[in-house]
Amino acid sequence: MKPRILPNQSPEPGNANSQQPRKNTLFWRLFANYFLLILIPVIVASVLAQVLVVSIIEKDAERFNQVMMNRFSEQTDKELQALKTSMINILSTSRLRSVLLTPMASSPDSQLLPELLHSLREQLQQLESDDLVEKAYYYFVHQDLMIDAETYTNKAYYFQSRYPLDLNRRHQLESELSGKKMMDFMQSSTSLTASISYPFNTASPEVYLLVEVKSDKLEEQIHMPERWVTGTAIMDESANVIAQHGLKPYDQLVLQQRIRTDGFSSGFTISDKTGLSFMPSGFNESWHYISMIDVGTLMKPVYMTRWICWLFLLFFLVVGALTSYYLSRRLYLPIREIKDGLKLHHVPKGEAGHEGNEFDLIKRYSQFIMTENKELFQMVNGMLPVMQEQFLTKILLGQYRDALSIEFYAKEIEFAYIHKAARTVLCISFHYDRSFYDAASESSKTFLLTALKDKIHRLAPGMVWICQTRPDLMACIVEHGHITEVKGYPEKLAEQIRNILLEYSPYYKATIGIGRTVHVVEELHYSYDHACAMLTYRGLLSPVEICGSQPSRELQQWDSFLAVQEVQRIVNQYKTREYDKLLQSVLALLEEGKTKDASAVQMKYLLADVLNTWIRAVESERNELNVPYYSSLFERMNRCMTWDELTQCFEDIHGFLFRKPASTSRSQQFSEVVKYIHEHYDQELSIEHFAGMLNMSIGHFSRTFKEEVGEKYVEYIAKYRLMKAKHLLLETNMKIDDVAEKVGYWGRNSLIRAFRRYEGITPAKYRNLHQ
């Protein structure tokens, strides 16, 4: 006879053959989920990396190289254009046409004006201060004359002693100096020379301005620091190298052959393992900027990305398989135990005898349990206190005014109350200390209010409801008897709340308003409105004050605005600079208000009018209205809750609005200027800066400086810098260039000119003579 299977029983898996397929099924289900959720996105990402990302990296490499080329080419063009502009400006302002080029005598040494020669040499010195300039000089075509930054002489002596050139190089130079030239370059094996002819618009110029360009500086301009750039160069249309950096002789030869064969192709080209990038020069149409690129180094991230994508895919495939296998083995026994444990629960109708997959069975049992306990989950939500407080707030604000609606909503949120009972509303208005309120976090503020509510609840457990109708207003509903009112209880509780609030006085001050007593819930809004009205009776004697339902302070019939005579009196006192009387009148008002026990509202209305009159009087002369600051003055006054705070507030405001400017003598001002010069002599010291700082014109400042100091402003700075330079020359081994930079000169030429002017010798001779 076969054993009978009960409805709540399942066939026992008597052998391993029934367990093994289920383990395999679990493995393949886990792996399938892993494949769908993780492997497919990984595969898609890998394919995208292969198809799109690698292509993007290659294009970005090309674009980045183009950006770098643009940057250094623009910088180089800018430097050369600046040099060209400087040369043109020098020729335009040199007066060569009017004086030197006009035939005056046969011997230039006896006829040239010394003043003009000095001016031309100074212009050449200024041109030589440029970083790209090695040497600058004038070459006169029809006169035996050469002028550089140091001297002027004839051509034979100049090319033998000042600027030695062999005969062939000199003939080559003179043969190239013909016709109109506007920043044409002449290249030799050792130098690169830029030339501009003068007059500009003539085919037979009479003077050439020649500038020797520093090769090392030009190479620095075209240098690209990226690892994948093997070298850079500037080449003309004949494939001649103007300047290069990092190119070996073999690379130059290959580059020249490539250009002579294929020309200058635009953009980025790759051949074998070398890439070339060409870019025309914006300065010279016959020039091209060229960078030679190591393609292997440039494309290394591309190859690395490709390998990483494949390894990434393989890694996820192996991890997924191992994880699925491990979880399938570890999860089978716990799943079986969960299944057996859930079967002990009451089986829903229709589920008996139905086994199926373990996961399906566990899901069905779990859904049944969650459905069975749905009401329990709905009740445990933790929101009832918040909802009840919102419910009380709506009653106090008058949104619920009939007994039926209040009873209906109270039942929904499980709010238990007695309909008829004597209740009084206490309104607590908070006046936060601004320093605490701005610095404290929301969590700190909430914690303080929560602690305050808890202490009030403990004063009368079960007899006080608390809700917050506004951020700065908290309402306490006090229940103190059925129908028959208990005399004095609300006042007694208010006094206890006052003692609690005094503990929090460092954080905020408060006012407690006591409303009238009502006997049904739907009339609580009357008590609340009455309590809010009582808050206006607050005085200025205590940080925490109670305003009872029968106010002890009657509102005086004060005029909230100053009389016209008072306003005019304040304006006249300000115009006559009787600042002390302005403050005394305010203190008198405060003393009068304190004597009459005026309310805070009345007193602040009157003081606001006083403050407004002060501000208008001040702005009538200053004309620099600072609305945010003046607004902060009114805010500070409104935050004052005691007579002492109001007094201190107006003393501070009076001290700011009517402060007397500090007077500084002229000698002291110029002593500070001299002190600043001594401390910052190595920086740029413009006379405009000091004149603006002392509110003087440049001429007035210059005259006053000489009167106070005894020397002209420019000469004083020059002599002080020379004193520092002498010290460095004698006490250190610094180079002349470094000394010039240390004492505030732009270059050694400027320092040399200053030494010659004031000492009569050069810095080098000064060092040799005194060491």
UniProtKB/TrEMBL annotation:
Question: What's in the keyword line of the UniProt record?
Answer: DNA-binding, Membrane, Transcription, Transcription regulation, Transmembrane, Transmembrane helix
HTH araC/xylS-type domain location is: 671-769
One Pfam family in the UniProt entry: HTH_18
Annotated Gene3D superfamilies:
Homeodomain-like (1.10.10.60)
Q: Which domain of life is it from?
A: Bacteria
User: Record's PROSITE patterns?
Assistant: HTH_ARAC_FAMILY_1, HTH_ARAC_FAMILY_2
Q: Looking at the record, which segments are called Disordered?
A: 1-20
- Transmembrane intervals: 34-57, 307-327
Q: Which GO terms describe its molecular function?
A: DNA-binding transcription factor activity; sequence-specific DNA binding
Q: Does the keyword DNA damage apply?
A: no
Its name, as the record gives it, is AraC family transcriptional regulator
